[in-house]
Every structure is written in structure tokens, then in C-alpha cells.
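It is worth pausing here to work through a concrete case rather than discussing structure prediction in the abstract. The textbook approach is simple: state the sequence, then state the predicted structure, then interpret. We follow exactly that order.
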Amino acid sequence: MEEALSEAEIAFKEDEVPVGAVIVSPEEKIIGRGRNQIIKFGDPTAHAEILAIREACKNLGNYRLLGCKMYVTLEPCPMCAYALVLARIEELIFATRDEKTGACRSIYNIVEDCRLNHQIKIKEGLLKERAEKLLKEFFKAKR
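Step two, the predicted structure:
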């Protein structure tokens, strides 16, 4: 989660919503990194999770990330949650909930939905206070 927070801090400095993500292989090696870059790329899909998935898939040469874990500073939105299902991520660890758009327990629970062909284990709360502080600082400065 420290690495995901580092990505979020870079996003903060780039005036992007400070969300960072990393994907770790079964061998505990970081194979994908991402941070929100929606403004930079002019792309509404350039969320931290999507960019980390793209990099991990490229590094593995496979669209399935079997046995991999994602660490992300904020609960994924519906788009990102379903991308995690499609990528077959084994476990999702997120720092803090997103009570407005969260799709991994807050508003929806896409990743544990047994109607889908893949479910993802969830852990939440790792370094929660640091992730929340960064998000609050960002949005306070915007107001």
C-alpha cells in the first residue's frame, strides 16, 4: 500500500484526484502501477486501477492476472471494479471506502457478486488514515 500511496501523492502533485494503485504478482513483485491521469490524457478511463491493469497485462503478456493482488488507495468505481473481475485479480486491498461511487462494498459490490464468473477477495482499511488525509487535502484545496 505504501507504493500505491506514493503513486497517489504523485497524482496529487499533478493536480489529479490522488488515487494510486499497484498490482503485485504471486511472487510478490510489483508488475503494474497506476495513478489517476484523467486530465493529463483527457481520458475518463485513465483511472489508477485501469492504468495499473494495462501495465501488468503488458508485463505478463496476458490479459488474465491470475493470483495477483491489487493495492489501491480508494475503493474502485464500477468501471474499475468490473475491469478487476475481467482481469481475474485474486485479491483487492483498498485503503478507504468511496461512499459516492464505490463498487466494492459501499454503493455496489461488483467484485464479490456471485452472479459473475469471477469473484475477488477484499480487504479494506490498510493505511486508511493516510489515504483519507490525502484525498481531503486535495478536495479542500479545490473548494
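Step three, interpretation. The chain has a mean pLDDT of 98. The longest helix spans residues 128-142.
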